[in-house]
Design goal:
The complex is a heterodimer of chains A (139) and B (146). By secondary structure, chain A is of the alpha/beta class. Helix content of chain A is 24%, strand content 40%. Chain B is an all-alpha fold and 146 residues long. The chains are: A alpha/beta (139), B mainly alpha (146). At the A-B interface, helix 2 and strand 6 of A face helix 1 of B. Chain A: Keywords: Dioxygenase, Lyase, Oxidoreductase.
């Protein structure tokens, strides 16, 4: 059996991303490990309370030798342009979540809207990643 | 803290166009969302996203109009205003240029909007129930045994 364990987002700044995903979105830290022997590479993952087996890796955009300088600049730019990734979250109450996250300063790019599949809204993380928050309709 | 590339601010303007396309948005408002002066903004936006803010907003509105043509039975003039455009003539011109069909022809090329509507099952059951008829009791025409 194959299951999803982690999905990755590029972030411009891990501290900023950590504060955003924990304090503003309300996720929990699953792993926060810094490896000095690997140039202080930091493995930072977050996921919702009650969902310990699936996490988002908040990955700092690496420079050489992982990514050549030109690619690093491109990834930074693509992330800032909102072209680097999307994560879909789900909730039981889209409007309540919207109100709660808005009150914590989350930058929404779409207010709760009715869709054929339910009700959803969307926000950006500080780096520009697109996060959708969907309340699925009962079919 | 690692700084964000300047494009992060331009993305705010793009998000504003996506969210508020139906309102009479000006380039000045989009520039303000990006925190840039108007002249500087248009040039930077084009560099980041490949087209001017004005063209981006227009294509967003036309995309919405195309969706409404496919999925609703709203009148074409109503759709033009619903997506934030205020001239039916220029709407028809730019829509035709972008989609290769007039709004009316574009709509006709898709199944009727009713085919896409998700009407709740309870409503279909309530409103779709036929009138029961027994041919002995009334002479009305209706579905049933001929």
């Amino acid at each position: 059996m194959i299951r999803i364990a982690t999905a990755q987002l590029w972030v411009h700044d891990q501290e900023e991303a950590l504060a955003f995903y924990t304090k503003s979105v309300g996720l929990e830290v699953r792993s926060d490990v810094t490896l000095p022997e690997m140039g202080n590479f930091r493995w930072l993952t977050v996921s919702p309370a009650g969902q310990e087996d699936v996490a988002i890796v908040l990955m700092a955009i690496p420079g050489p030798p992982v990514l050549d300088a030109e690619t690093e600049a491109q990834v930074r730019e693509l992330t800032a342009k909102g072209a680097a990734g999307t994560v879909f979250l789900t909730t039981d109450d889209c409007d309540a979540a919207y109100a709660e996250l808005s009150a914590r300063g989350v930058e929404f790019n779409e207010e709760p809207t009715d869709r054929p599949y339910g009700r959803d809204c969307g926000f950006r993380d500080p780096s520009g990643n697109n996060i959708r928050l969907t309340q699925l309709r009962e079919m | 803290m690692a700084p964000h590339p300047p494009a992060r601010h331009l993305l705010r303007a793009k998000d504003l166009a996506d969210a508020r396309y139906a309102e009479p948005l000006t380039v000045a408002e989009l520039a303000a969302a990006a925190g840039l002066s108007r002249a500087h903004f248009s040039r930077q936006f084009r560099r980041a996203f490949g087209e001017s803010p004005h063209v981006y907003l227009l294509t967003r509105r036309l995309e919405r109009a195309a969706t409404l043509l496919r999925t609703t039975d709203r009148a074409i003039a109503t759709i033009c205003f619903d997506v934030g455009l205020n001239s039916l003539g220029s709407f028809t011109t730019s829509f035709t240029r972008m989609f290769g069909l007039t709004p009316a022809a574009y709509r006709a090329a898709f199944p009727p909007a009713a085919a896409h509507a998700i009407v709740p099952g309870c409503v279909l059951r309530a409103y779709g129930r036929p009138q029961h008829r027994t041919f002995r009791e009334d002479g009305a025409q209706g579905p049933g045994i001929a």
